[in-house]
Amino acid sequence: MATTHPRSLNDASISMVGPFDEDELAGHLEEASIPAVLMALYQLTGDHKWLEEPYAPLPPPPEAAEDDWDHGGLSPERQAEVRGAALEALIAWSQGTPPAVPAPQGDVLTEMMSVCVSETIDPQYSPMMATHLGFDDSEDPHPTGPIPDGFSCLVIGAGISGLAMAYRLQIAGIPFRVLERGAEVGGVWRDNVYPGAGVDTANELYSFTFFPRDWSMHYAKRDEMMTYLKEFTDHYDLRRYIEFGSTVVEARYDEDRQIWKVRYTDSEGTEHTAEASALVTAMGIFAEPKIPPIQGLSTFEGPLFHSSQWPEGLDYAGKRLAVVGTGASAMQIVPATADQAESVTVFQRTPSWIKPSAKYFERVSDSYHWLANHVPYYRAWMKFRMAWRGYDRVFSSLWIDPDWDRPDESINARNHALRDNLLKHIRSYLSDRSDLLGKVTPRYPVYGKRLLLDNGWYGALKKPNVELLDEAVVEILPHGLRTESGVERDADIVIMATGFQTTHYLGPTRIHGRGGVELHEFWGDENALAYLGLMTPGYPNLFYTYGPNSQGTGGSFTASAEQQSRFIVQMISKMIDDGIGAVEPKRDLFEEYNATIDEKLESSIWAHPNVTTYYKNRHGRIVIVRPWSMVEFWHMQRTPRMDDYVVEPARRPS
Ligand SMILES: Cc1cc2nc3c(=O)[nH]c(=O)nc-3n(C[C@H](O)[C@H](O)[C@H](O)COP(=O)(O)OP(=O)(O)OC[C@H]3O[C@@H](n4cnc5c(N)ncnc54)[C@H](O)[C@@H]3O)c2cc1C
After folding, report:
1. Is the CB of 445 under 6 A from ligand 1?
2. At a CB cut-off of 8 Å and minimum separation 6, what does 585 contact?
3. What is the structure's pLDDT at 6?
4. What does the DSSP 8-state code read for residue 149?
5. What is d(CA 209, CA 463) in angstroms, rounded to the nearest whole number?
6. What architecture is the 297-353+409-442+446-496 domain classified under in CATH?
7. Which terminus of the chain is more solvent-facing, meaning fewer CB atoms within 10 Å of its CB: N or C?
């Protein structure tokens, strides 16, 4: 049955270590964000005045960098008053006074969030944020009755999604195993070891709600991300469920026995079969590299490899590097290698929009760590302030305004304002390099592709040993590369930062559902389809994480993984409690749902003619992203509505 664990972000992160050293506490409060302190103060005391004038933070003026609005616009005297009151309340708390509002929800949470960021927040965000901030005090999903003999679940993959599944299944007490083809957990973070590899979502958000960490940087590098995922795995003792070196080749649904038969090979190539009542794919969409079929690929005489297959110990110092592609990986590789390499030639097909980030290179301060670990709710509110900037704020800029009069550049007024801001950022770096300005300015509207963070990209392009060629590579030569206009550059090492086979959901793994129909055949070419991104009719008890049309524009993937794993464990718990042997979405609903997706996405930014993106399959259908805001999708996936599904009673003794 369910095991106990720290239920919320706050329980997990606050160590009550007896009386505070008052001077130390006062010193750290000097560095604290006033809006977050106000929220903690309200939770500790229950005194509503901290949410009202004259304490409520003021909205930042448009020109103020949001990262720097930690004083909340309060005068130094008011800030001192808030800090003084916080000191008093924290000392009282450390001496045993319980918090007055430990888990704000509903209207109270909506009001607090609105005050914290000085804007009116719709009440529909309240339940979602209660979950993300650790204020949701409802139980983790789990079966209430006994688990039938032989019932088990099988998860494919041990990246963030597979680990989120393992965590939840373990808590729910549902028997399971995880098959992972690699030798370690971590998925993309295990594989992508190229120089400069790191996150582009602030780590306070890109980490599990139930396992916060004192990140060294606001945006961690790959090694720290791997340390985090390994520590998570070991903390919850999840390794014992994972069989490494196990590659799933095929799964077949046995309609009579209502089970999945899974065929996999171990690291020696020996074939095995496993059986499971429920099958969860946690195979990601960035697991299979994509290398375009450029002529002469095999003729290159030096190392040539995909960015996710960086050779261990590769010595690139003093070498001529060729980087093909200018997506997220190239953007990290070029600034990280330019100082050591003799030269770096970048071959660009499409430039990316890049937004500045004041905190990208910053270490997290000791005070932040201290406050996050000692002041209850502080971390949660800091997390909220970061989250709010990225979540649905951009959503309205993603939809084509049919009356918009500058359709070549942008799609609506808000989208155009973003473009103007990002153009200013480009010019602030490159006004003295007219040769680069034109090349780096994207020809598609902002958000048509994933918006990248500036990690020193423009600065790197200006280095004397870095060259940007704005052309596709058409041929690889034994010692170099040739572009479509015939420009040739010599290279010692070629790095194919050319992306992943994102639209080939589930890669080469074959999944046969009812009637033996293979899933890719049911879908059609690169055309994965699901209901709520989670299930497909004809494939009972098969659940996807990172499924078709499930990706959002803002936010962090860990939040999606938590949400999807929660839904899946809710559904599996229902199967157990209600004696369900097979569950799958109703076909008409599934069809209607996907027709709605296509219809809505027709007026989205990704349908803009200048947008080429890994969100679209080769026939132009958008298969990766969804047309719903983060909060809409959260509510859609919050809990299974059993009327939407066809269920078959279990043919096993229950
Ligand atoms: C370089 C890079 C940086 C990124 N940065 C961010 C970021 O900053 N913020 C963000 O939100 N997202 C980011 N992403 C997106 C990222 O994919 C998700 O955040 C997340 O890591 C996906 O986790 P996952 O478990 O779903 O998939 P993956 O991490 O891809 O894990 C899938 C696992 O399944 C295994 N597997 C696949 N097929 C089989 C099989 N047949 N049998 C057995 N095992 C199999 C793989 O070996 C792998 O371990 C980034 C992606 C990349 C590539």
Report:
1. no
2. 531, 532, 535, 536, 537, 644, 645, 646
3. 39
4. T
5. 40
6. 3-Layer(bba) Sandwich (3.50)
7. N
Cβ 635 vs Cβ 122: under 8 Å:
no
Q: Which residue from 84, 120, 72, 90 is spatially nearest to 21, judged by alpha carbons?
A: 90
- Helices 378-390/34-45 angle, 10° precision: 130
Torsion-angle region of residue 653: left (phi > 0), alpha (psi -120 to 50) or beta?
Answer: beta
Alpha-carbon gap, residue 469 to 490, rounded angstroms: 13
How far separated are the first and last CA of the chain, in Å rounded? Answer: 17
> Which residues have CB under 8 Å from 540's CB, separation 6+?
253, 258, 513, 514, 582, 583, 584, 648
DSSP string computed for 15-84: ---SS--HHHHHHHHHHS-HHHHHHHHHHHH--GGGGSTTTSPPPPPTTS-GGG-TTTT--HHHHHHHHH
Select from 70, 8, 77 the least CA-distant residue to 38. 70
Whole-prediction pTM: 0.95
Regarding the beta carbon of 555 and ligand 1, being less than 6 Å apart is answered no
What's the CATH architecture for 153-288+502-638?
Answer: 3-Layer(bba) Sandwich (3.50)
Taking only the tens place, the pLDDT of each residue in 559-601 is 999 999 999 999 999 999 999 999 999 999 999 999 999 999 9
CA 502 to centroid of ligand 1, rounded, Å? 11
Tell how far the Cα of 192 is from the centroid of ligand 1, in angstroms: 10
pLDDT digits (tens, 9 = 90+) for 461-481: 999 999 999 999 999 999 999
Give a three-class secondary structure readout of 332-375: HHHHHHCCCCCEEEEECCCCCCEECCCCCCCECCHHHHHHHHHC
Spatial neighbors of 283 by CB under 8 A, at least 6 apart, are: 156, 157, 506, 507, 509, 546
Residue nearest to atom 29 of ligand 1 (CA): 187
> Is ligand 1 within 6 A of the CB of residue 282?
yes
Domain segments of the chain as ranges: 11-139+366-390, 153-288+502-638, 297-353+409-442+446-496
